[in-house]
Write a structure and sequence with these properties.
Elements lengths: L2 E12 L38 H13 L3 E2 L6 E4 L9 E4 L6 E10 L2 E14 L3 E3 L8 E3 L6 E7 L6 H17 L12 E11 L9 E4 L4 H20 L7 E6 L4 E7 L9 E2 L10 H8 L6 H12 L3 H7 L3 H13 L3 H18 L11 H12 L5 H14 L3 H8 L7 H14 L1 H8 L6 H11 L6 H13 L1
Parallel strand pairs: 11-12
Antiparallel strand pairs: 1-9, 1-10, 2-5, 3-4, 3-14, 5-6, 6-9, 7-8, 10-11, 12-13
The structure holds zinc ion.
């Protein structure tokens, strides 16, 4: 019996607003505990929430990018549960009427593309953080994060493998970052992912019992946890057992999942409309206005790069993986219309330095203009490609102009015909046997002469010019 894997995803994206969802406290990460709090996010009696307009804009723009419908009369609900990091005893979320629903996103899959349906995207506030770092019996609570805005994006169970999940997550993160609504930082918890996974006998229409996975904070862990669950559930089913509907935690050290709790149902949360917040009546004009602020998104931009610049799909994928990198590439190509050459340099030398120094492309010490200056120096024969590659790290580190650095280091190629002709004359005079061989038809000997001239010039002769002059002078 073979089994089919069915995976759906819930992603919590922390929206990059300056202030929280229902109060004016800041959202900066890493500040001392409980310094970003007020009566509203502390859940004090008598305090009232006020919705953050920017968070609503970000949710709508994300919904538009994911081809969702925006619900004009979406509303907030209270999701009731008790936990020490939730001072009100309920989380303000959206239940029956989410702000966005029924969308889709295209992901690369098996050399082609596939649509993953988005069931809904809704706004909700984050909880605080319990700290169990005291070592003893004490735990502490930090409420700086309580009330920060999250957009929960839920897919239909449309993914069939950990690879598709990986492709979905990467594309979704790229989209959120293109929109500048989320910084995409998984380690800091700005993007959290909860896959649900079930298995069913191949060909069966009804879905199997699903297990939800929590506590996963990197792309690799998502993949590892899913692989583990596929193996575990397959074993259970093959042995004639039953998969329990439950929530399991991924244990990074043991590399396995363990039961956290049996799955709660929606009615456990006793959802009801939040009486402190009116339904949002979204103005259609406002939505239209926001539509115009949705940038060209990574998938579309990748396709355009392939057709417009005639570069390979792989290159286009790497270059459009972030908006600043794609902008950098296009800025270079507008100054130096040889896209494949630019692509090689951006993906190779530039990305290597950017990654090593953890710098975003828009802050690169080598600006698009400077990189193009370097490429022009190679093109006009001032320096060789080899020298250009060698000096790039120094160019990046020093922030100097390529021309200046090359002069300082005396790296210009010898492209002066007079000087090269003199060297060639000497080499010809010193090697009469090889000259005779060449003239009797052994063209391969030319390489020997090129080598000798390069040696005489200490590697600085312009190879193309040496070739040309050698052929001319040997023919005389
Ligand atoms: Zn507050």
């Amino acid at each position: 019996m073979s089994y089919e894997v069915v995976i759906g995803l819930e992603v919590h994206a922390q929206l990059q607003t300056k202030t929280k969802l229902f109060c004016r406290c800041g959202t900066e990460f890493g500040l001392p505990p409980n310094t970003q709090t007020c009566p509203v996010c502390l859940g004090m009696p008598g305090s009232l929430p006020v919705i953050n307009r920017t968070a609503v804009e970000m949710a709508i723009r994300t919904g538009l990018a994911l081809h969702c419908n925006t619900l004009n009369d979406n509303r907030f609900a209270r999701k009731n549960y008790f936990y020490p990091d939730l001072p009100k005893g309920y989380q303000i979320s959206q239940y029956e009427a989410p702000i966005c629903e029924n969308g889709w996103m295209e992901i690369p899959s098996n050399g082609s593309t596939k649509r993953v349906r988005i069931r809904r995207a809704h706004l909700e506030e984050d909880a605080g953080k319990n700290l169990h770092d005291g070592g003893g019996t004490e735990s502490r609570v930090d409420l700086n994060r309580a009330g920060t805005p999250l957009l929960e994006i839920v897919t239909e169970p449309d993914m069939k493998s950990p690879e598709e999940v990986d492709a979905y997550l990467k594309r979704l993160r790229d989209v959120l970052m293109y929109l500048e609504v989320c910084d995409g930082n998984m380690e800091q918890g700005s993007l959290r992912c909860e896959p649900n996974i079930s298995l069913r006998p191949a060909g069966q229409a009804t879905l199997g019992t699903k297990v939800e996975l929590k506590n996963i904070n990197s792309f690799r862990f998502v993949s590892d946890a899913l692989q583990y669950e596929i193996a575990r559930q397959t074993t259970v089913l093959k042995e004639g057992g039953k998969v329990n509907q439950e929530t399991r935690l991924w244990d990074v050290d043991k590399e396995q999942t363990a039961v956290m709790r049996s799955k709660e149902e929606a009615h456990d949360y006793r959802y009801f409309p939040d009486p402190d917040l009116l339904p949002m009546n979204l103005d259609q004009e406002w939505i239209e206005e926001l539509k115009s602020t949705v940038p060209e998104l990574p998938g579309v931009r990748q396709k355009r790069f392939i057709t417009e610049y005639q570069i390979p799909e792989y290159d286009a994928g790497v270059l459009t993986s972030s908006r600043p990198l794609a902008d950098y590439f296009e800025a270079c190509v507008s100054l130096f219309p040889n896209p494949k050459t630019v692509s090689n340099w951006v993906m190779g030398e530039l990305l290597r330095e950017l990654n090593a120094s953890e710098t975003s492309p828009e802050l690169s010490p080598v600006s698009p203009q400077r990189l193009v200056n370097l490429l022009q120096l190679v093109e006009n024969g001032t320096i060789s490609l080899k020298v250009a590659r060698e000096i790039f790290p120094e160019l990046y580190g020093s922030g100097k102009d390529p021309q200046e650095l090359i002069q300082e280091k005396g790296l210009s190629q010898i492209s002066d015909e007079g000087a090269l002709s003199k060297m060639i004359q000497d080499v010809i005079a010193q090697n009469p046997n090889q000259v005779a061989q060449y003239r009797s038809g052994k063209d391969a000997v030319l390489g020997f002469f090129v080598g000798q001239v390069m040696k005489a010039s200490k590697g600085k002769a312009n190879p193309a010019l040496v070739n040309e002059l050698l052929k001319k002078q040997l023919a005389e």
